[in-house]
Each structure stands twice: as structure tokens, then as C-alpha cells.
Amino acid sequence: xxxxxxxxxxxxxxxxxxxxxxxxxxxxxxxxxxxxxxxxxxxxxxxxxxxxxxxxxxxxxxxxxxxxxxxxxxxxxxxxxxxxxxxxxxxxxxxxxxxxxxxxxx
Length: 106
Fold this sequence. Notes:
Elements: E1 2-7, E2 15-22, E3 28-35, E4 41-45, E5 59-60, E6 64-66, E7 73-75, E8 91-97, E9 100-104
Antiparallel strand pairs: 1-9, 2-3, 3-4, 4-8, 5-6, 6-7, 8-9
């Protein structure tokens, strides 16, 4: 099931925003919605797997986001991280329809 989380005009390339969502099981999740420097869109878990800090507050590059606290860099397509983060973040399917940013949590 897809959920509308933002308007595409609300994020400029090279920025991210945290949104809190509730999935179909009633579980609350904090997701980072990211528009990378090339203008491509991604959705990942917002918490760094190394230190549980918000990734949406980090620097956004080309298909990556850097944890502001530890310097780990996460690939926005795969969720894989660099040291010190050895556990990947979860990625989610994201689509844009008529300027609405939609994320599928399932």
C-alpha cells in the first residue's frame, strides 16, 4: 500500500526530510525521503544503523546520504552502508504521481 508523504516541490535536489508513517499493521516508522543531487528520489529508514541518529539531517550526494554523527555513507538504492555502519538501512519503493511523493511500506 502506498502512502502520500510529501509534495515533490517541497524538496530541492540534495535535500532530505524525515516523515513519520504508520504501516498497515499499525507500526510507526520514521522514513527519510531523499532527493539526491541529481534529482532522483529515494525512501529509506531514517535511523543510522550504527548510532540511531537521523539520516535525514546528513549530507545528501549522488545516490547516497552521509550520517552527520559518524560519517557512515548509505547507498540510497541498496541501503548498504560504509564503516562504521555494517548493517544496511531498509529501502522502500517511492514513486511520484502528479507531484505527490508516494512511499510503499509493504
